[in-house]
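pipeline/complex-builder :: batch 7 item 3
reading input block
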Amino acid sequence: MKYLKYTLAISFMAIAGTQRMEACGPFYPEKPEHIKMFRSCSPELESQWQEGCRFQDYEKEENCLLWQKFTSPSIPLKDIEKVIYTARLSDLRDLPAGSLSGNKFAQWLCLPGHAEDLEYVSIAKEIEEIRDHMADTWYYGYDEDEEHVRLDELMRKCRTYTGKRHADRYALQLVRLYFSAGDFKSCRELWENTISDMSANIITDMAASYAGGAYYRCGNRDKAIELYTRSQDIGSLTSLKAWEGTEEKSEYTDLRVKQLEYTFNRFPNSPLLSIKLQEYVRNRESFVYGFEVWEDRDFHDELKRFARKAVSSEKCRQKGMWLYALGYLYYLDGNMSQADTWLGKAEHADATPFIKESVHAFRILMDAGHANNSRDYRRKLLRHLEWLDERMKTDVHLTPDQEWQYDNKMNYSVSYWQDVARKVLLGEVCPKMRQSGNTPLALQLANYATNRIHQLSPLYEATYGGWNDSTGYEYYDKIIPFDEYRKTWPERNVFDFTNQFFKEIYTAKADDAARYAEKIDRPTSDLDRFLNDRSYIDRDYLFDIVGTLYLREMDYEKASRWLSKVSTGYQSRTNIAKEGYFRLDPFRYQSDKTRLIADSCDYKLRFAQEMVRLDNMIHSDAEANRKAEAKLRFAIGLRNSFGRCWYLTEYGHNMFLESDYENNYWCWYTTADREGFKDNTFAQEAYTRVDTMMKEAIAEFTDPEKAAQAQLEMMNHATLMKEYPATQAAEYIRTRCDNYYDYALQKR
Amino acid sequence: MKIHPKLLLCLLLPLALLSCRKSPSSGNDGANSIYYWRTTFSLNDAERKFLKQHDIKKMYVRFFDVDYDFYKTNGEVIPSATIRFKDSVPQGIEVVPTIYITTKAMQKMQTKEDEYAAKILKRVNAICRQNKIEPKELQLDCDWTKHTREYFFRLCESMKQDLDSSQSLSSTIRLHQLTQTPPPVDKGVLMVYNTGNLMEMTAENSIFSRKDIAPYLRDNRLAEYPLPLDVAYPAYGWSVAFRPKSGGRYRFHKILRRTDFSSYPELKEVMPNIYEVNSTINLNDGGEDANFLFRDHIIKVERPTAKEILEVKRMIDKKLNGKTHNNILYHLDEAQLSHYSTHEVSEIYSRH
C-alpha cells in the first residue's frame, strides 16, 4: 500500500506539472506558447562568459589565423583548430600516424625544419592538459607530485626559449603560469621587460589581459583598464566598471543600455553584445509570458532605439542580430506588422550562421501565426519541419541522467530546437488546426513535438521509489532504453500518460483520435509520413486511447472495434494495471472488493463487448423481463464506468494528494462517487442516461419477483417492501432486517 | 646428532600449541582499532593518551566522501569533505584510508565503476603521499542495497585489481547487508551502530539497541558469513530534537551534538534522557550559528552505555562462534570517549 502511495505521489506530481509547485524560481511556462525562444548566443558562449568572462571563440579564430599566416594559406583553419584546440598531447606524439594523420597542419608540423613549431605546440598542450587535470575536483595535489614537477620543467623550458619565432607564445605560457601561481610581480616584469616590446597580435593581446590582472592586483587600475581594453577583455572591464565617467555623454537613460553602448562603441562585434541582447530580450519575454510582474517598458524602448543605431553603424558586422532582436521585440509587443518588417530585413542582413538559424526559427514562428488547414500551409509546414528536424538531430546532446526528460514533459527548456518545436507546434499550429477542423493533424504534430526528442535521445532514467523489506524506503534510478521503459519497466510510466501529446489526444473527440490513429497505417501525404516516422506510434498505446475515448463517449461498438486491435498483454503496461486496478466487476451494482474478478484480461474490451451485447438485447429482445434486466445491467455498467470502475473511461481519476505536513506524508484521496465527476461532462450525460434507464427498467419488469430482486440488488429495501411485499426478496429482507428503511448504501 | 624423543617433544609441543591459535592471516591481526571520522585530522592530548593507553595499532581514517547531488555537485560524482591533516599520525599506528560513498553516488557510478575506482585510488594515494602514510589496507563504506549492490561490487573488484599486491581491500558491512552476498573484498567490518530509526521518537535508541540488532543476527549468519569480519561498536552519543505535531505525536527536527543539558533551566527532564523545552532557547548561545529550540520541543539523548555495548558484544561474540575478529570503536573524539571509562573501553576491545 505504501508502495502504491509513493508511486501515485510521484505520478501526481507529474500530472500536476502544469501547476507549478515551487515556491521560488526558476519558473517555466505552463503553456507551450509561452516558451521563450529568442536566441542570439549559444549556451556555450553564455557559459564562457558566466564562468570566465572570456570569449574563446574570438581568440580561437584569431589564433588560428595567426598560425595560418605562420605556416601556409593552403592549410585549412579547421585543421589548425583541430590540432591546437581539440587534439590531445597523445595525438601529437602519435604523429605522423594516429588520428591527425590526414590533418594538413599536423603534416606541416612533421616536416623537417618544423621541429621548433611542433615542440611549442606540444609544450603548450601539455601545460594545458596538466592545468585542466589540476582543476579537476578529483585532483589532490601534493608536494612534488608529477603534475607540479612537470609543470616546473615546462616553465623552465618556456623561460629558457631563446628563439624569436615563438617568443610571444612562450611568453604567453609563462605569464599564464605566473598568474595562476599568484606571482603577479613576475607577470608585470615579464610584460614590462619583454612582451610590451613585442608586436601586437592576438598572442600578446591575450598576455595583456593577464598582465592587466597583475597590475590591478598591484593597485594600478588605469594600467589594468588600458591592458584589458587592448585585449578586449570585456569581462575584466565590466568588473572594474570601466565605463564609469563615460555615462553622462550617453543619450540613453537606462544603465544597461549605456553599458551596451560603451561596449558597442569600443568592440562593436563583441560576443558580449549577443549575450546581453539575449538576456534583455528574454527579460521582455518573461514579462510578456507572465513570469515577471514588473514591466521594464522604458528600458525595452531604449533597447529598440539602440538596436536601430547599431544596425546603422558601419562598424557593425552583426546587423542581422540587431534586426532579429528588433523584430522579436515588436513581436512581443504584439505589433506583428513591425515584427514582420524587421524580420524580413534580418533575413537579408549579414549574420553568423547561428543567428541565421535563429532568424529562420522566428520566421517559422511568425508563419505559425497564420497556420490554417490549407494545402499551401501544410506544404510550407512540412518544409519548416524538415528544416527544424535537421537542427534537432544535430543539436541533441542530452544525457539521460540529467533529469531533462521530466522537464520535457513540463515545457521546461531542455534543448533549443525542442523548445522551438513545442512553441510553434503545440503553442500555435495545433490549436489552429483544431479550430480549422483538422484535429488529426494537430495530434500528429503534438506527437512529434512531444516524442521526437526521445527518438533522438532514446535512453531514459527510470526512477524507482518503494518500500523494501530489509532497508525500508528505497529510491534508485536506472538508465534504460526508452522502449524498455515503456514496455517492461514494472513501475509507473510517468511520461506517456501525462505528456503534452497525451493531453491533446485525451481532450480530442474519439472520432478525431480514430482518424489520427488510422493515419498511422494509412498515411496519405508526405507530411503524414514525415510525422509517422518521427513520432511515437505504438499501436497498442494509441488504439487503447482511442478505444477508451469511445468508451467515454459511450460508443461501445466503436470502442470494441478499436480495443480488439490492442494486444492482450498491453493492459499490464498501463499505470492503472500497475496500480492494481482492473479488478472490480463493472456490472455489479455494489462494488465488492472481496469478490474481485478472477480474470481481468482485456478488461476494457470485454466491458465494451458486453455493453454492445446488452444494447442489442435492449433493442431487440421481445421478452420484457429479459429486456429490463439487460437495461438494468447496461445502466449499472454505464454508471460504474464513470464511478468505481473509472479506469474504463479514464487514465487517472481525481488523482489528487493532500500533503499532511503535520504527519509528514502525502494522503491519497480518490472519490469515485458522482461528486467526484461533477466536472466531467461525459459523466453527467451518462448519469442522466443511467437514471432514466434504471427507472425504465424497473417499470418494464412484468415479473414482480424479478423487479423485487433488482430492487434488492440496488438496496432499495423500503421500495422493495412497499411495492413487492409478497416476493421472496421481501421475505429475505424480512428475516434479516428489523427496520425496513432504505439503507441507501452506496446509492448514487 | 641424535635428538632424544622427549627433547624433540619438548621442542615441538609449544610450536604445536602455538599453531592451534587462530590464524591472523584472514586479516584479523589482533590489533585494537578505531575510526577517525572528522574532516580535520588533529589530536589533542587526551586522544593521544587514549591511543597509547589502549594500544591502538590501526586507525580507519575517513579521507573523503564520494557524493552526487544534481544541484550541489553539478550533476557529477565528486569527492567532498576531504580530510585535512593538521597533525601527523602517531608512530606505530597504521592508517586505513576509508572512503564513504553515498548511495546516490553509487548509482551514478554504474557502468563507470572502473573509472571511479581508479579516481578514488589515485586520490587516496595522493593524500597518503602528501601526509606520509603508507596504507596496507583501504576501506570502502557504502550503504549498498540489492539495487546498488552490483555497482558497488564492480567498484570493489576494480579497486582490488588496482591495488598493490601487498594491499588489501575491506568494506563496511551493515546489518541488513548480512543476508546478501558479501562484497568481493578481503575483509568486512560489521557496523553495529546506527541501528534504529532516527526519525522516530518512540524508537528505543537510534544509535544502538539490542532489540534492533538481534533480528539481524539470526540463522547463524555471523558464523557462516563468508568474509573475515571485524566488529565496530559505537562510542558516541548525540541528542535528537523533535517538534510537536498533532495528536500528541512528535516529528524529527534535528540532531544535536550536545548531550549534556544540565545547565539549561529552560529544559525539564521529564524522563531519563528525555527533556522538554519550556521556553525558547538557543543551544549555541555565543556561537556563530543560532540553534533554537522552542517550547514543547523534546530532546532525546542517545548514548549507548558500556553495559549495553558489552551485552551486545557478548551476543555477537557468541554468534561468531569462535571466528577470529577484532573490535573497533567508532570513533575517536575525546568529547565522546570521555563517557566511557578506561576499563569499559578495554572490555569492549577485549578478545576473550
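note: The longest strand of chain A covers residues 459-468.
queue -> next item
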